[in-house]
Specification:
Largest sheet of chain A: 6 strands, parallel
Radius of gyration of chain B: 21 Å
Strand content of chain B: 35-45%
Number of helices of chain B: 4
Bound molecules: thiamine diphosphate, magnesium ion
Largest sheet of chain B: 5 strands, antiparallel
Strand order of the largest sheet of chain A: 3-2-4-5-7-6
Distance between the termini of chain A: 54 Å
Number of strands of chain B: 9
Shape of chain B: elongated
Largest interface: A-B, 38 and 33 residues
Order of helices and strands of chain B: EHEEHEEHEEHEE
Helix content of chain B: 10-25%
Number of helices of chain A: 24
Number of strands of chain A: 20
Structural class of chain B: alpha+beta
Oligomer: heterodimer
Helix content of chain A: 25-40%
């Protein structure tokens, strides 16, 4: 084993290099200066100076989700660490591998309320998979290696390594990643073959089957997505996905039903409700998906493939739980099912498709663009039409109505192309995330579909985009409203629009220009295409401020506390009292 | 009959040996966790219980293997069968937790608690306290002319019972350790000393 002596600060940079890290998102401060000094003295790792530590974590999330590699963040103690808490929580909820290195006050000052001291491991304990406070330089290298191991293995997630300044200055022994004890943390990846076989049997006899897929398929990797596609195509079963799983099965694939859930497609939700075999692959029965749990898909037998044992039977009881990595399990499932003759009840499944096609006739996403006021759906539809053939497109979103419209009207044909904050629903996620994606894919087309309110939450990152010449496209659906909040107030709180709009929105064109970026404004439906084309043509960061209808609601919608078959389809539908008292307490 | 050969609500294939899902009464379970003896590990376990709204009836922790840096945490918790399963699965995710054993379902376990009672009194009351202490096989670990400190070990219910008896006899102070437990019979290598 090769052992080298070096300072803790140098170890940090060496360890990152040994893990193949090429980009770090960060912000300096007193407690990390020794590490920044080492960053300065090397060229292998690029450091991106964000404008707020929350932005650093979201950028790292965008990087991680679009590459499948861990995103790395470097922040100082105290406020640097606390500013990253929202990002860490977001990454925990959406299973994004993040390694965050934070500086800490020197060990001998810990506990004394030192300047910029915060109990970082205490504060981040519930929002990381694991964290470490390293008090000896000799322990530092192995802690960082373990951090990468934990972030990437099992269900991915964020980890944090807190390093006091004296530990950064002191010298110690560096050990490489291979020599490090990554401990006992080794989640099971192979599923129980007996249950896999039982699922293969169920596939043979199911009459109304459905695949319900989630972000776990994408996290498992490209092999998992390929296997899913094979399985779906060979069985001929319909497939729907959560918000997080979009792209695992291609939106232009013939068995695709569209997204399911609270704002999912009518056909997807009804198929979930009426199926007799539900095969959950890497999804977690989130409340946006299930609606009222007691009435969730009442007639089905459910299989659940998940690497996280705590996801099994947490919300919905499953008859066929399979704990394992999606790729490993699907490989076994395909093998077993094929060895048994690759059978399905084809006539029954054909009838099932006929039923689904009946539901499709409702055409739940239809809308009409009449007049010059831009309907948000129209703007998204045009954005999709003008960019879908781009060979290398990535879509990020903020949180709100625009996010749901993007999920409904944009088609993801490949995994790792869709970056959105699902579990935490973090406004302000999209813009920094797009910066992270663009850093990882400098030549790609990276678009952030934003709402004006969300975008403002991390607008300072325009400085980052300009400084690093990242041509991220900020497509803002500006309804001058906290649209999703306004929609709930309309449906649930007697149209009392309490604080759901801002009376002092900036001029987004001037705002872009103030940062040295380009701004475009569009407020007439006839100009949408030209605006989008101008945005695409510009080689640099752009804001397209697209002023849209202010009072548009996002449909379909399953009101909270209702089952899948109680979907609201649109303005014509009776939306009065759609949400009952019991549902009103839900979010 | 569903065309699928699987009974709805069944889980014969569960990796977790789930009991009937529909059985929703609250149960008391004693869990033994083998954890790395490192800073923050107890906070992680307790934070999990408080953050997710699980109950802790009692909790004990101490190092059991100095060279291997292992501690044993014994938690007594209550919940419906599905909540108990969820607690175990959540504990299993905590990185420094090596093993989670449900002593309530994995065979029979011996459970013990130790308690100290300060009983203050004179005359007949004092004699009666001493007599009852004898019946409970309590040790007198400290005495003055008008007080005793008794030490009692046993199940939690034995300690509850002794406390009830001492209350009218001058019980002034009570300290309990919380439950520690071991499975009966042969030692399971996993849960024994590492
Ligand atoms: C940080 C944060 N604060 C509050 C919310 C609650 N929230 C959800 S959507 C929304 C409105 C978003 O407005 P905008 O970004 O303009 O999107 P729109 O719904 O109008 O498309 C709010 C306030 C949130 N998701 N995140
Ligand atoms: Mg808005």
């Amino acid at each position: 084993m090769k052992q080298e002596q070096m300072t803790g600060a140098k170890m940090v940079v060496k360890a990152l290099q040994d893990h193949g890290v090429d980009v770090v998102f960060g912000y300096p401060g007193g407690a990390v200066l020794p590490i920044y000094d080492e960053v300065f003295q090397q060229n292998r790792i690029r450091h991106v100076l964000v404008r707020h530590e929350q932005g650093a974590v979201h950028a790292a999330e965008g990087y991680a989700r679009s590459t499948g590699r861990p995103g790395v963040v470097l922040v100082t103690s105290g406020p640097g660490a606390t500013n990253s808490v929202t990002g860490l929580t977001d990454a925990l909820m959406d299973s994004v591998p993040i390694v965050l290195i934070s500086g800490q006050v020197p060990t001998f000052m810990i506990g004394n309320d030192a300047f910029q001291e915060a109990d970082t491991v205490g504060i981040t304990r519930p929002c990381t998979k694991h964290n470490w406070l390293v008090k000896e330089t000799d322990r530092l290298a192995s802690a960082i290696h373990e951090a990468f191991h934990v972030a990437m293995n099992g269900r991915p997630g964020p980890v944090l390594v807190d390093i006091p300044k004296d530990v950064q200055f002191a010298s110690g022994t560096y050990i490489g990643p291979d020599a490090a004890q990554t401990g006992h943390y080794a989640p099971k990846v192979k599923g129980d073959i007996e249950v896999v076989t039982a699922l293969a049997e169920a596939i043979e006899t199911a009459r109304r089957p459905i695949f319900y897929t989630g972000g776990g398929v994408i996290n498992s990797g490209d092999a998992a997505c390929k296997l899913l596609r094979q399985l779906v195509d060979k069985t001929g079963f319909p497939v729907t996905s959560t918000l997080m799983g979009l792209g695992a099965y291609p939106a232009n694939g013939k068995n695709w039903l569209g997204m399911l859930g609270m704002h999912g497609l009518y056909e997807a939700n009804l198929a979930m409700h009426d199926c007799d075999l539900m095969i959950n692959v890497g999804a977690r029965f989130d409340d946006r998906i299930t609606g009222r749990v007691q009435d969730f898909s009442p007639g089905s037998v459910k299989a659940h493939i998940d690497i996280d044992p705590s996801s099994i039977n947490k919300v919905i009881h499953t008859e066929l739980p399979i704990i394992g990595d999606v790729a490993h399990v699907l490989e076994d499932l395909l093998k077993v099912w094929k060895s048994r003759g690759a059978k399905t009840d084809a006539p029954a499944v054909k009838e099932w498709w006929e039923q689904i096609n009946e539901w499709r006739k409702i055409d739940c996403l239809k809308f009409e663009q009449i007049g010059s006021t831009i309907r948000p759906q129209y703007a998204i539809q045009r954005l999709e039409a003008l960019t879908k053939d781009h060979p290398d497109r990535y879509i990020c979103t903020e949180v709100g109505q625009h996010q749901m419209w993007a999920a409904q009207y944009m088609g993801m044909n490949d995994p790792k192309r869709w970056m959105t904050s699902g579990g935490l629903g973090t406004m302000g996620y999209g813009f920094p995330s797009s910066i992270g994606v663009q850093m990882a894919h400098p030549d790609a087309l990276v678009i952030n579909v934003a709402g004006e309110a969300s975008w403002l939450m991390n607008m300072q990152e325009m400085g980052t985009a300009v400084q690093y010449r990242l041509p991220v496209k900020q497509f803002i659906l500006n309804n001058e409203r906290l649209g999703m909040v306004r929609q709930w107030q309309e449906l649930l709180h007697g149209e009392r629009y309490s604080h759901s709009w801002s009376e002092a929105l900036p001029d987004f064109v001037k705002l872009a220009e103030a940062f040295g970026a380009k701004g475009i404004k569009v407020d007439d439906a006839a100009d949408v295409d030209d605006g989008i084309k101008e945005m695409l043509a510009h080689d640099g960061p752009v804001i397209l401020d697209c002023l849209v209808e202010r009072h548009e609601n996002c449909f379909p919608m399953i009101p909270s506390g209702e089952p899948h078959n109680k979907m609201l389809l649109g303005e014509a539908a009776d939306t009065d009292n759609a949400i009952k008292e019991a549902g009103a307490v839900l979010v | 009959m569903s065309p699928l050969n699987i009974k709805k609500g069944s889980s014969s294939h569960s990796a977790y040996d789930l009991r009937d899902y529909h059985e929703q009464g609250t149960e008391r379970h004693t869990l033994a966790l083998i954890v790395d003896n490192e800073a923050g590990v107890l906070a992680r376990v307790i934070g999990l219980f408080s953050g997710r709204g699980y109950n802790i009836e009692s909790l004990t922790v101490a190092e059991i293997d100095h060279t291997g840096h292992r501690s044993r945490i014994t938690v007594v918790t209550t919940g419906t069968p599905s909540v108990i399963e969820q607690i175990k699965a959540q504990l299993g995710r905590v990185v420094p937790v090596h093993d989670v054993h449900d002593l309530t379902t994995e065979g029979v376990a011996v459970e013990r608690e130790l308690a100290l009672f300060r009983v203050v009194g004179k005359g007949d009351v004092r004699v009666e306290a001493l007599r009852l202490a004898d019946i409970f096989r309590a040790q007198v670990v400290d005495s003055t002319l008008d007080s005793f400190v008794f030490e009692v070990t046993g199940t939690s219910s034995k300690i509850d019972a002794f406390a009830e008896l001492m209350r009218p006899l001058g019980l002034e102070e009570l300290a309990r350790t919380g439950v520690v437990a071991l499975a009966r019979g042969e030692i399971d290598a996993e849960i024994g000393m590492a």
